[in-house]
Amino acid sequence: MPAKQLYIVRHGQTEYNAASRLQGQCNSDLTALGERQAQAVGSSLAQRDHISSFAIVASPLGRTIQTARWIARALSREDGQIGTDERLMEFSLGEWEAKVASGIKAEHPEFSSMRDWYLNAPEAESLSAVQTRLLSWLNDPATPAHVIVVSHALTGSVLRATLVNLDDDQIFEQSRPQDGYFYFDQKQLEFIDCAHLLHR
């Protein structure tokens, strides 16, 4: 894998997040809190000394584009400077997309202790398929060596696990914050908390 430096951002809270609905590759807009989270991440990134050398690349789904636009504004960049790549999209969750998580779990009590229960959705995208597309993106010569990645909860977890060589059982044990982001360099992953920057 080529040497890279990455900031890994999850999109801000969405209407579906607030309602505990599964999104997958369908979409819902950022909430007011989600916009503040995106602004906070942007404000924090703007304080990083080397940030001018970092490209912004987002999943093409609406919620990640919205988040990336807030980040671009904080970095004094135009929306046209945001790249997109389908390989950064969230898992497809098949027939469970837009359904309320609690309702699915009520129908499937066997999921109560499973962290990766979403992947049991009928016609869901497999973990190995997502790992393959993320490795393709990381190894692509066209992928910037310094990049702010705006992605999703599950896909972001897989990306971070790939970078630091976590095994499959550890992938979904990771946190999936929306008011902070991760910095990867030299095989090390650092979390930067932005909660204190949220504008009330």
Automatic annotation (TrEMBL):
Designated name of the protein: Putative phosphoglycerate mutase
Domain of life: Bacteria
Keywords: Glycolysis, Isomerase
Binding-site residues, substrate: 10-17, 63
Gene Ontology cellular component annotations, sorted alphabetically: cytoplasm
GO molecular function: phosphatase activity
Record flagged with keyword Isomerase: yes
Lineage, opening ranks: Bacteria, Pseudomonadati, Pseudomonadota, Gammaproteobacteria, Celerinatantimonadaceae
CDD domains, alphabetized: HP_PGM_like (cd07067)
PANTHER family: BROAD-SPECIFICITY PHOSPHATASE YOR283W-RELATED, HISTIDINE PHOSPHATASE FAMILY PROTEIN-RELATED
Catalytic residue list: 11 (tele-phosphohistidine intermediate), 90 (proton donor/acceptor)
Pfam families according to UniProt: His_Phos_1
